[in-house]
Design a protein that fits this description.
By secondary structure, this protein is mostly helical. Helix content is 73%, strand content 6%.
């Protein structure tokens, strides 16, 4: 399946226009969701406020499962926005598909691109180290993160940082990309074979629903693993 994104360049630097536009759209959707659901907050929540509070409570439970309860206020906003961003980014490409000319794609899930998922994973690992250094200082951070319980584990601990980035990023990419590929193949199968078109429609709908479920699970896993890595960095006992 040969598919490419539209690109543009600024000062000789080339950018993936499809990915950039879809990331921007994801940010707008997440912002509007939080903005609209948080207007006119009431002590007895109902409607859209209930939805937002359910998401926050759900993410807070993820934090509690991996960090102490006193850490919840510190990471609640960050983890909630991260969960919403990845969830929207995962399912965005399931809504429709826009291609022009020689299979140039103008619409896809941002997380169906390995560059995005690996960059996001790298940022999360970098952030856990930043929080640890800010909390303990650089020397204690190095001792707790790379030389505990014994200094001989230093090479393995350094290698672990790279494997964490790869596993966190590639897991997300693989699941979302595979879902979009199968949706495309089902659609092409129905369009190329008119007799199979009525069968392809319900299969496409079923797979879309399943892909939404997978997208939600992957957002949950990504946030959970981020909190696990955070707990390893800010906990004095491993």
């Amino acid at each position: 399946m040969h598919e490419q994104s539209w690109t543009f360049s600024i000062l000789g630097i080339h950018f993936d226009g499809t990915v950039c536009s879809m990331i921007a759209l994801t940010c707008v959707i997440v912002f509007l969701f939080i903005f609209l659901c948080s207007r006119n907050m009431k002590l007895r929540p109902k409607g859209k406020q209930n939805v937002l509070e359910y998401v926050i409570d759900f993410v807070n439970n993820i934090i509690k499962d991996n960090l102490s309860e006193k850490e919840v206020p510190t990471f609640s906003l960050f983890a909630s926005v991260l969960f919403l961003f990845i969830l929207v980014a995962n399912v965005l490409g399931l809504a429709t598909k826009i291609t022009i000319g020689e299979d140039v794609s103008f619409w896809k899930s941002p997380t169906a691109d390995p560059t995005i998922t690996l960059t996001l994973a790298f940022i999360m690992i970098l952030l856990t180290s930043y929080v640890s250094v800010k909390r303990f200082g650089f020397k204690k951070y190095v001792r707790l993160s790379y030389m505990s319980p014994m200094p001989g584990l230093l090479p393995i601990k350094i290698l672990e940082e790279f494997t964490n980035v790869l596993t966190l990023g590639l897991r997300l990419y693989g699941n979302i990309f595979a879902g979009e590929v199968l949706l495309t193949l089902i659609a092409q199968f129905g369009l190329l074979n008119g007799a199979m078109f009525p069968i392809a429609i319900p299969i496409e709908m079923i797979w879309q629903a399943f892909s939404i479920f997978i997208g939600a699970i992957q957002a949950f896993i990504f946030v959970t693993l981020t909190m696990v890595y955070m707990s390893h960095k800010i906990s004095e006992e491993h």
